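Worked example 3 (structure in, sequence out).
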């Protein structure tokens, strides 16, 4: 059974049928007269994973990186362009690429016996904060 989606407002003024990625892979496999077991042997992808790919059950698979690798291998095995299959997968999943923020770097701080906080970025002048019996230096160089 080939799964299709109806897309409203196509160029013909009516509706267009778009084959899913799984259906496209399955159709190409069948046209090459390959069984799922043969594809599994060639790609070294488990049969259960190939079944999930053909059924478009991508969420049942381990992770995004693995799904992309499986799709690429499957596409090559059945004679499809891997870049086209991956592009269709990306557009169908609305995958958002998240760029991590740079790490927040805080200056290293040191607590001196008087209770004052001194940063290690430059010489710092210290003032007497409270009554203290120990002498406090006027400047500290690190």
């Amino acid at each position: 059974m080939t799964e299709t989606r109806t897309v409203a407002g196509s160029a013909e003024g009516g509706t267009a049928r778009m084959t899913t990625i799984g259906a496209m892979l399955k159709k190409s496999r069948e046209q090459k007269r390959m069984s799922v077991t043969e594809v599994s042997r060639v790609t070294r992808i488990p049969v259960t994973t190939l079944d999930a790919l053909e059924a478009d059950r991508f969420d049942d698979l381990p992770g995004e990186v693995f799904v992309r690798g499986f799709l690429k291998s499957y596409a090559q095995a059945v004679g499809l362009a891997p870049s086209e299959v991956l592009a269709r997968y990306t557009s169908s999943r609305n995958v958002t690429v998240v760029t991590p923020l740079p790490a927040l770097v805080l200056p290293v701080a040191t607590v001196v016996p008087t209770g004052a906080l001194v940063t290690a970025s430059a010489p710092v002048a210290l003032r007497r904060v409270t009554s203290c019996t120990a002498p406090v230096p006027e400047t500290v160089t690190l």
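Notes: Confidence is low (pLDDT under 50) at residues 1-16, 121-126. The chain has two domains: 18-93, 101-142.
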